Amino acid sequence: MSSTLSLLRARRFGPLFVTQFLGAFNDNLFKNALVVLLTYQTAQWTSLSPGLLANLAAGLFILPFFLFSASAGQLADKYDKALLARWTKLLEILIVLLIGAGFWLHSLAVLLAGLFLLGLQSTLFGPVKYAILPQHLGETELVGGNALIEAGTFVAILVGTLSGALLAGIEGGAPWITAGCLLVAVAGYLGSLRIPVAAPPEPGLRLNPNPFGETRRSIGFAREDRSVFLAILGISWFWLYGALLLAQFPAYTKDVLGAGEGGVTLLLTVFTLGIGGGSLLCKRLSGQQVEIGLVPLGALGLSLFGLDLAFASPVAAAGGPLGLAALLAAPGTLHVLADLFALGLFGGLFIVPLYTLMQLRSAPAQRARIVAANNILNALFMVLGALAAALLLAAGLSIPALFGVAALANALVMLYIFRLQPDFLHRCAIWLSSLGGLLKRDAPAADEAEKRP
Prior knowledge:
Low-confidence stretches: 443-453
CATH class of the largest domain: Mainly Alpha
CATH architecture of the largest domain: Up-down Bundle
Number of strands: 0
Number of helices: 18
Largest sheet: none
Shape: globular
Number of domains: 2
Mean pLDDT: 88
Structural class: mainly alpha
């Protein structure tokens, strides 16, 4: 654990981590602040319904991942990734200034344009952050680096979401939102200045201006190695599963647990702590190599605890909104929280080896474009998951039942992937047998130590 955390002090990783963390924080700060403002002050901005506006905001943020990921991958393979990171952070500062102008002009169109551009900025940075890791970290450090990136991303999402809601709740909070976003953007740019040079693997690459044609080409690169493409499918499925769960938290807290906004924060916090703990535990269990045998273990936990969450959920909500103390004292709440923590924990065990496998098995000259293909499929899966959830809920399925359906679907998808790539299950069996052997060797030593005076 100490060796993994020591990467945060290394210049070849620490500045990238700071830049990524602050970027994810800022995206979620503004996105949630805007959603809260439009939810509670709708009449001041537009005649559209708050629900429609929330979905519109989510769609505008994710749209650039479909349109521009392939172009971002080309840029990251052609140019120095450290330089690209600085350009994207400068772009973020300009976008925040545009957002400030939107608040000053009281223009919803400008604010939504700013949200779209923040999505574009994240799209441009995406291939950089994952493709640069194998250039700056040794193969034995990649699992630890990815673990820290994943843990940091989820913590940034949580803290950014809470900060956005807090700033939006201040009377006349628009200047505070702008100032907060600008401060974080400038800090992110300063962090990016310390990212070491990452020489481009293909400086002679001719850029294809057609994003749709390049999207097909990037996915084609990913499909050249079966293990890489299956890893991308696994990563994309995880984001579908995780996004589906997170999207239900507000309604689940209100309608099933019978709690207020503090309950939503509690659920998000517990799930985030689970993801962070699972990501770091993955490094501990992997040792000095990528251990794909942990992927089936993570998949099993995601299904088992997803099903348990469905059955552990209360049948009916309490009479009125429960405070945090009353929620924690309510029957079944601790069981639900334990399931959410376990889902996050096994999610970390599942996702970190897949990201590392994608990086290690990708051709260096095409790695950023393969990461771009991963980002495109991640976005596609999340949209499909949201549509499927909306249809099932509209058909009368309860939220706990939706969790159960998602857990069963997770089991089926994982069985399909493991059938196509048996190495996952083979490595899992080897890892479990080696773990069992280690425990057997340690047991006699412990018994002998107890017998000593």
